[in-house]
User: Fold these one by one.
Assistant:
Number 1:
Amino acid sequence: MKVGDLVKVGPCFEGKLDCECFFCEHDSNRVGIVMEDDRMSAAEEGYRCGWWVLFDCGEWEIFPSDLENGDVEVIHEAG
């Protein structure tokens, strides 16, 4: 994943009622654009390990494990 890519976060567990996740709480379309690659940026607690993505409801950090698990997919790569 790289800056400028469009990504889509998968749906929450089907049948789960009253989901309180970031995306459900904001009624998001779950599509976002990668704004920053923070995988090696220093932070107070050590190193960050993800990408900052801007969604219709705000910024959220996506981690490599989210891609590996299939919870997030790249739907359009930046040219």
Note: The first helix runs from residue 22 to 25.
Number 2:
Amino acid sequence: MQQLHELAQSGPPWARERAQMALAMMQQYESGGISLEEYQELMTDLVRSDQLNAQADDQDVKNLLVSCVMIGAKLA
């Protein structure tokens, strides 16, 4: 999850925004604010949108973001 924190602080704007959202969802799940099913669905939706494909100008950063979010969703 270190990579997700790094993206949230220093990635391109589109990656920073999504990484911050993923971290917020992780915190919400860990605090009991959302169920496991909701958490996994939200995390998956975060990186599965057409908007991400349109915004992602760096394929390596996109792949890193997608990997981090999907791993985070499966670790829950």
Note: The chain has one domain: 2-75.
Number 3:
Amino acid sequence: MDRTCSEKTQVADLALFGGPTLFEDLLHVGCPNIGDRRKFFELVDDMFDRRWLTNNGPFVKEFEERLANIVGTKHCIAVCNATIGLELAVRAVGMTGEVIVPSFTFIASAHVLEWQGIKPVFCDIDPETHNIDPNRIEELITPRTTGIVGVHVWGRPCEIEALEMISSKYDLKLVFDAAHAFGCSYQGKPIGGFGDAEVFSFHATKFFNTFEGGMIATNDDDLAKKLRMMKNFGFSGKDTVLSIGINGKMSEISAAMGIVGLESLEEFVSINQRNYHAYKKIFSKLPGIKLITYDENESQNYQYIIMEIDDDTAGINRDLIVDILTAENILARRYFFPGCHEMEPYRSSYSDYETFLPETEKLTQSVMSLPNGTSISINDVERMGQLLRFVLENSNEIREKHASIKTNQ
């Protein structure tokens, strides 16, 4: 489909200033990838014929088996979403008191802890990897610390060995928020089998989705058994409840979506990788823009197209660029903005965050994400690149015009 509306030859052509949009259709950062619809509806018909819609049905069991083969773990427990999955994992491994977690992550990583009466202790990040900085963890450990939650941001793994060493040294539990990292690897080993457990997201905005959903991966037999009970109200068998639990089960229709999606997994990754290389080729020539890169010696899902904007070199700041792109129907996003420590209830609890989270503060002001996935073509990428080149070449005039409009509002 031709999504062309208008190219930009002068600043007044920008949609932010009243010009026509560059794209007729909205370009989303996380537009859902869809597998074989015919196959999906066949499974749905099968589900309706059986009248088995939830409660650990055959699709969920098949889905879990396929997931375990992909991530290389003994156990994969499908859940209704990754947030519930992370809550289950944190509770099942016995985290209490204080748990160290990066602030540069989706708010759920912190909320999961706070919701269970655990204090999230925010750790700064490595500015190169965007992941939790192992060198800053030990100074945060207190007698109340019981664990670490590492986050594989953008699907690029944490420094896993360093985190495992710290966890072992201080007898801490280690859980990974692997929401971004399905299909990725660390030192040739699939993400999924590290720490006590790893939790994945299959939300609609992820490159692989089950509408809503997630899973917990672990090699610990006892932990897996505990998690399966906890996600089903603590039931062991039909009538026996052995522990406290919640309803964290995945439905059959979500599992059916996952089964079909797995059959298109290579295609999804291939398109993401193709787009990533197109972005990389174009954006490497644009001043003030740094595109994060992936280690292509490892398995990657290439979902996230992430740029860091250097205001001084680019001549324009990240927020104005996002506004310009959004006006053109390119729904770029600021990730993760603001950091968790600047959101409630954490903002009220941390008054000196600028002193102990300097790298997080810098990154939240410079990072943005661009659209990717099966809904994005090479032509779309090239036209976005042309637009950004135009913006950078005319940054002074754009800033002045924008400031004038703001002043007169």
Note: The domain at 265-408 is CATH 3.90.1150.10 (Aspartate Aminotransferase, domain 1).
Number 4:
Amino acid sequence: MNRIVTRKLLLGLTLVAALVVLALAASPGVSAKGEGKVHPAVGVYEQQHPGQKVPVIVRVKKGAHQAASQLSASVGASEDLSLIDAFAAAVSPADVERLASDPDVRMVSLDAVMTASGGKSDSVDHSALATAYPFAAAAVSAWDAGVTGEGVTVAVIDSGISGADDFQGRLAAKFDFSSLDKGPADRNGHGTYVAGIIAGRTGGYVGIAPEASLLSLKVTDRQGAALASDVIQALQWAVDHKDEYGIRVVNISLTSSIADSYRQDPLDAAVEQAWFHGIAVVVAAGNYGGQDFAVDHAPANDPYVISVGAFADQGTADTADDRPADWSGRGLTVDGYAKPEVLAPGQDIVATLSSQGSFLAKALPQAVVDGRYLRLSGTSSSAAVVSGVMALMFQQDPGLTPDQAKFRLVRSAPPMDGWQAPRVDAYAAVFSTAAGQANQDAGPSDLIDPATGQIIYDSVLWQSVLWRSVLWRSVLWSSVLWAK
């Protein structure tokens, strides 16, 4: 049963970090029996919202399905997150302590707010293209060689997808996982815009993979906010229905509002499980520039995804004038991984508008183009470009695993002056024959067994290591970056 989360609660979640440092000196107030099993953010939320219910994700031990069901029922309405052996609920502070003290519970984490990273074949006729980004990403050359994404499905975890005319019958289905805005319609507009960059095809505005199929997995509300648990549910659905819909790629142009190590974040565990089940997960690197901890927000902080930064194509097909975007997230994660892995066009990108009544159309009337399209900047756009490129790659070579596809994508990408990450080259990636595996130096989430893609439960992390370490007490929380 879905929870009802009020706007007041959502605003409370986004305001937690504003005063988080003031609350660090106090512990979450959990009894010794449950010590180390409650994420510090839960305690901070309790302190800043006394007497209010706390949105949490509760993970249980292996085989504790009956216990999980009983615990979930004991706190009222909740959501099943079986992908990571967990459930989500809004609970009282007393219930937080009770859950943490239960021997079958592994961890109680804050259900973090997610925000969008936007707002900052020869059968495709590109002679009238009104946008430069397909040229800048070298997708047009792939179309001319007959590779358009046909037969590949990209699942878009976002605000929904509308604008069926732009997708010409290729929108396979719509599903709603949002706790904040029920119904499949895209009332925000971000999801439709992202889908247009991936696979739109109308007039002069053509996406990177114009014959790929799309799935709409709605998680955000009208204003573009979502809960991490909603994104996890959507990922769980994608894994469960991967073969039924032919899902090869998931696009997540959203970032968590909490900076964290990927090894302990529940959303990171979920994207890794999708990756290990054969789905390439493409995510926005975020728009925090080169600030401290700019790339420590799930899911972009995870090595088992393709995180994408942005460059400006200057509105021309000539790549010589392209420049990295200063606001594009970049740097080393607290776990030592360089992010992003690749850059793609992300400034002033025009794509499908869901409707004139959408939140983005009303909030940014100057961004509406020709009454049917929207011009935005952000790594949301860049991630969508790369999701389209991945669709092209999987059409050309359906046998690729996510690790193999990521290896070819990055290996074939030419350098961009002044940046560690290279720029995407769709044609080179599609026709690359490079043999190799990405992520060979990466360690998976402490919840995931990379050999099976299944959750594991014997990690000491949840018991004693990072939750009480300097990482939380003095590093991440002292400079945490909250999405705007």
Note: Residues 118 and 378 are 4 Å apart (CA to CA).
